[in-house]
Amino acid sequence: MPVIITFLFENIGDFLEPKFSVITGLFFIFLIFSVYCIYKIYSWTKASHVQIPITQEKIFTASGGLNEDLSKGLLLSFIGLSISTVFLILQLFFSNNNKGALASLLPQLQPIQQTLLNIDKKLDTISNKLDNVKKETSDNARKELQNMGVAWNGKNFLDAVKTGDMIVTSLFLRGGMRPETAESDGRSLAIMLSLNGYNPDKILTLLLEYGLDINYPFPQFSALGDMKTTLLGRAIETGNIKLADALLKNNADTKSPLQTYGQMGIAIDKYPLQSAIYWKRKKITLLLLDADTDIAVGDFAAYRQAYLMKDDRYWKENEDALKQILVKTAPSGKNAEKINTELRIQEIENELNSITKKMWESYTNTYKKAEYEKRSEVLQDEKKKLQSKLTSLQ
């Protein structure tokens, strides 16, 4: 059986590899095994203390502890060495035109060997082309997106941003996609990133690595035309705490006003901290305060917003948080007296407007109408006094 296997390997090697590396390898394997067998037999002879030559009978007999398989292995190794040597000689002295020994001696085998060699060359060519494809895949991001079945457009890029697909987002950025101008059905990066509730912080980090301006003013539709929004502005509007936190950690601007939606969808200007209170985002408001946001911007706009929303249902349910916000955003000294006076005047004006509306609604109820008129007079007197005080403070 070993001899048959040896012949098979040598023939295959002769067909596929004219440089006879397989035959050479088998030759050295048999040589090493032969040396090993001889060494073992020598060790057995020395141990037996029998001073007689090693005869063929002794080698093939198990008497005295000699391993019979070892002896047979030695014989088979010699046979394998002989056959390998013959094929090496044939290969060295009788091969021509790089055809191999058997193919040189037997012309009938030459077409078979040539076919096999042609297949080998084609396989090498295919392998080289695959290597080039892999190189193109790693160097050309747009080509890699195409291979993934992702078309090169702003919609697919922003969809990846929204779903948090780091691989596709990275490929678009590597391919030269401009996040500031990309849009998906009229929606900008600011909108789509704010809708990512999975990993907006990681996507933001990736965008910043490719040079995104963290304070870029993105266009956004409003009832009376387009307005401008920022990543922080949209994070506040949607209540995306992860994104807001990541933006603050990367030093997003908290001192400049941003546009957001007011009544009837009309754009209004509000500072980030003020906007967070306006949109009833308690956690984001506290994040902004923890980030040492300047409370004095917009003439203490955040404090004014919190003060005027004391009666809002949401903030009534979160009364402790609102008290904390009022304390942290409150002005001090002369500013405090002036601002509180202004806010009280604004409260009175809001209540007077409400009373006027109620008086019109209850014009047939004289009792109710009299109550509203009395309350209106009280408020008007208070307003006059506060306006006088305000004049003296300015």
Largest sheet descriptor: 2 strands, antiparallel
Radius of gyration: 45 Å
Distance between the termini: 112 Å
Q: Which regions are unreliable across 5 or more consecutive residues at pLDDT < 50?
A: 1-20, 52-60, 133-138
Count the E strands.
4
Oligomeric state of this protein: single chain
Spell the H/E element sequence. HHHHHHHHHHHEEHHEEHHHHHHH
Description:
- The protein is 68% helix and 5% strand.
- Strand 1 (218-222) and strand 2 (225-229) form a beta hairpin.
- The chain starts with a helix and ends with a helix.
- Strands 1-2 form a two-stranded antiparallel sheet. Strands 3-4 form a two-stranded antiparallel ribbon.
- It has four domains: 2-135, no CATH class; 140-211, no CATH class; 213-330, Serine Threonine Protein Phosphatase 5, Tetratricopeptide repeat (Alpha Horseshoe), CATH 1.25.40; 348-394.
- The radius of gyration is 45 Å and the shape is elongated.
- Helix 7 (141-147) packs across helix 9 (166-174).
- It is built from 20 helices and four strands.
- With 394 residues, the protein is mainly alpha-helical.
Structure characteristics:
two-stranded antiparallel sheet; mainly alpha; 4 domains; 20 helices; 68% helix; disordered N terminus; single chain; Serine Threonine Protein Phosphatase 5, Tetratricopeptide repeat
Summarize the structure.
With 394 residues, the chain is mainly alpha-helical. The protein has 20 helices and four strands. It folds into four domains: 2-135, no CATH class; 140-211, no CATH class; 213-330, Ankyrin repeat-containing domain (Serine Threonine Protein Phosphatase 5, Tetratricopeptide repeat); 348-394.
